[in-house]
Amino acid sequence: MDVLCSDCRREVALGTMGRCTVCEGILRPEYPDEAVARLASVRPGPGIDRYRPLFPTSTPLPFLGEGDTPLIPSRRLGSSLGLERLFFKNEGRNPSGAFKDRAAALMAALAIEAGAAGLVTTSSGNTATAASAYCAAAGLHCLILLEPGNPPAKLRQALATGATVLPVEGVFGHGPEGTRDIILRVAERLHYYPGFVWAPVNPYILEGIKSISYEIAARLPGAPDVVVCPVGGGDMLTAQWRGYLELQRAGVIDRLPRMIAVQSLNAPPLLEAFRSGDERVAPLPYAKSRISGINVPFTGEHALAAVRASGGVVTGITDDDAFAMQRRIGVEEGIWVEPASAAPVAALPQLLAGDHVQPGETVVCLLSGAGFKDALLANAEAQAVSARPPLLFDVDAIVQAAMRP
Fold first, then answer.
1. What is the C-alpha to C-alpha distance for residues 365 and 328, in angstroms, rounded to an integer?
2. d(CA 367, CA 293)
């Protein structure tokens, strides 16, 4: 395996952190043909260690049941939106309830291989819960620098699995360089592994996430026409694109999907860069979305490159659209998702209207995390139900209440 700059193709040593020192490009591992060819014989199942020849480690990954999440055909939403073949890849079924478990399993193996005493990361929530769980499984200390004001459920999960959680004001508010520097400096002082899940800081961890595309291609079978993803920093979309490229290289699929990125209009760094035709994604001076999973002011240009190389687009939705679709997915499909998961589904009407998605195409929406991760609306509704006076123990009273609009 080689580690190369995505832009200038300069080779660096395995384990090198940060960007290319020559051109500031994002580093990425690349694998020999014989490793990629093994994809033709590997079948999906619980645990992503089966894909280790295509990960940047020889250390076994700790297993908590991650991977092989269900690919669910839409029962009602697809037809109501005008799509004939809409699927949901439900990453909320991972052990800690989000796709970040795939990254955390690899992260823990990388920390063990590096001989680190523990792991440090910054997080808006899902990385914290995943990292804490997999560090506990691997016997590693876990330090979380948490963005204040994030959903309590995510904080509780991290604490329950033994992490040290330190709220740090503006941990994402000092630009990507500031976040990178604080992670790398704290890691060096503590002899911890820098486990930030963002390729411009740590170019290796996102490799675990590409297993999503392996599973989708195995279950359909073949590649979908379109993959629609919620995007914050951009690693989930980029990782899947890499996975599809490897599947094509291995002869498992004969065509590639279009990758579509969805951001909140209140935190749209990738959307701004895509619309302006830029090659780099400038960090924004703000991130004010109520969708915690994608409320970040910077996205890596690796995601921008993946969207463009695939013939995809970047689009934006309002926070209210995501919350409304979160409820529809629950009521019409029976799947409780966090608001970030609802973002790609909320974008489908405008994607259809703009001819970016066609009615007869196979479309996969990534549901990035489970509803309990960020249950603001559900909590409010539950409190309202709990506040009602109880009904009499009487059939007529119950039937009348049930029939009220």
1. 15
2. 11
> Is the omega angle on the peptide bond into residue 73 within 30 degrees of 0, that is, cis?
no
Q: What's the pLDDT score for residue 124?
A: 65
Q: Where do we find the tokens 């490897």?
A: 246
Beta bridge partners, 228, equal 260, 365
In 3-state terms, what secondary structure has residue 133? helix
Q: Could you tell me which of 390, 59, 363 has the C-alpha nearest to residue 204?
A: 59
User: What confidence tens digit (pLDDT) does each residue in 320-369 have?
Assistant: 999 999 999 999 999 999 999 999 999 999 999 999 999 999 999 999 99
The answer to whether 377 touches 326, Cβ cutoff 8 Å, is yes
142 forms bridges with which residues in the sheet?
Answer: 119
Show me where the domains of the chain are located. Answer: 71-94+209-378
In eight-state DSSP terms, residue 90 is: E
What distance in Å separates the CA atoms of residue 373 and residue 341, rounded to the nearest whole number? 11
In the chain the first and final C-alpha atoms are separated, in Å, by 62
Amino acid, res. 122: T
13 phi-psi bin (left φ>0, alpha ψ -120 to 50, beta other): beta
Q: What confidence score (pLDDT) does residue 377 get?
A: 60
d(CA 297, CA 251): 38
User: Contact, 69 vs 335, CB < 8 A?
Assistant: no
- State the Cα torsion 96-69-74-154 to the nearest 10°: 10
Order of strands, edge to edge, in the sheet holding 164-167? 164-167, 141-146, 118-123, 192-194
Compute the Cα dihedral for 299, 303, 304, 305 and give only its sign: positive
Low-confidence ranges of the chain (pLDDT < 50): none
By the 8 A CB rule, do 29 and 203 touch?
A: yes
**Nearest-angstrom CA–CA distance, 67 and 196:** 20
CATH C-level class of 71-94+209-378: alpha beta
- Per the CB < 8 A criterion, the answer to whether 64 and 101 are in contact is yes
Output phi, psi for 89, to 5 deg.
-95, 105
Q: Given this model, what pLDDT does residue 53 score?
A: 96
Evaluate whether 135 touches 157 at the Cβ level (below 8 Å).
Answer: no
**What would the pLDDT profile of 97-150 be if each residue is shown by its tens digit?**
999 999 999 999 999 999 999 999 988 678 989 999 999 999 999 999 887 776
